[in-house]
Amino acid sequence: MPEGDTVWQAARRLHEALAGEVLIRSDFRVPKYATVDLTGRRVLSTVPRGKHLLTRFEGGLTLHTHLRMEGAWKVYGEGERWRGGPGHQIRVILGTEHRTAVGYRLQVLELLRTTEEERVVGHLGPDLLGPDWDPERALANLRTDPARPLGEALLDQRNLAGIGNIYKSELCFLLGATPWLPVGALPADRAEKLPGLAHRLLEANRDRPVRQTTGLRHQDLFVYGRAPRPCLRCRTSVRVADQGDGSQERPTYWCPTCQTGPAPAPDAPQRWRERHRRTPG
């Protein structure tokens, strides 16, 4: 799933391609908006809010999209071949004289009045890459449920907006705590560092084509995606298991030596690997 930094990059691409331009093509390929035509309207801006994208048009309209697991916005120049996927995966096309933005596999696509944007993003906590970023409020939000596992609390966009599964695993590693450690059990000094650390990681990566958390050449991430390879710090095998209520697969990576706190049942990582081994692709 795209995280706050990749959504920020998508918003920048859309803004640079469309903002200030008048639409000459508008094609919504979802039943609810099949008759909507935005041609003739000027695009005002595209802004990110956590993992959400808000594209605003003159006349007080906003297109709200969310990439979820597989969605993507692609921008193409005149005559450029579209390469984002087969045509049946296209959900919306917005074209100006020189650029065309194509939304593929968008699971959330909603047209609303700009004055109603809070209805779709008002529940979010402070945005790690937004002008509303507030580390004290983010920490207070995380602490409202001290018994909740740290990894789950970090993924809850109501606490702070922009963290996904990759940053969850990397942050827990950098804090020296397993993702199953209750938020209230995280030592106070580390808890106070958490919001600033999360902010620095996303800020450092918002302009990078490849996400990097380690500062090491040829080793981009500390634990995410590394199981069962050795930990970059202690050489213990990195482990992986699902975390969450089972409604979504959340492969979670950690080092059992560098990170202290509870861990899932010993067979949980094997269950995760077996399930994915049976699933094509």
Write the layout of secondary structure elements.
Elements: H1 4-18, E1 25-28, E2 43-49, E3 52-57, E4 61-66, E5 72-77, E6 90-95, E7 99-104, E8 108-113, H2 118-121, H3 135-142, H4 150-155, H5 165-175, H6 188-205, E9 239-242, E10 251-254, H7 268-278
Antiparallel strand pairs: 1-6, 2-3, 3-4, 4-8, 5-7, 6-7, 9-10
Helix pairs in contact: 3-6
Pfam families: Fapy_DNA_glyco (PF01149)
Organism: Streptomyces griseofuscus
Domain FPG-type: 222-260
Mean pLDDT: 93
Helix share bin: 25-40%
List segments where confidence is low: pLDDT < 50 over at least 5 consecutive residues.
269-281
- Structural class by SSE content: alpha+beta
Q: Order of strands across the widest beta sheet? A: 1-6-7-5
Total tally of structural domains: 2
Question: Summed up, what is this model?
Answer:
Helix content is 26%, strand content 20%. With 281 residues, it is of the alpha+beta class.
Characterization of this structure:
One of its GO terms (molecular function) is zinc ion binding. With 281 residues, the protein is an alpha+beta fold. It has 2 domains: 4-122, N-terminal domain of MutM-like DNA repair proteins (Alpha-Beta Barrel); 135-278, Helicase, Ruva Protein, domain 3, CATH 1.10.8. It is 26% helix and 20% strand. The chain contains 7 helices and 10 strands. It has helices at 4-18, 118-121, 135-142, 150-155, 165-175, 188-205, 268-278; strands at residues 25-28, 43-49, 52-57, 61-66, 72-77, 90-95, 99-104, 108-113, 239-242, 251-254. A 4-stranded antiparallel β-sheet has the order 1-6-7-5, covered by helices on one side. Strands 2-3-4-8 form a 4-stranded antiparallel β-sheet, with helices on one face. A two-stranded antiparallel sheet has the order 9-10. Helix 3 packs across helix 6 (188-205). Mean pLDDT is 93; it is low at 269-281.
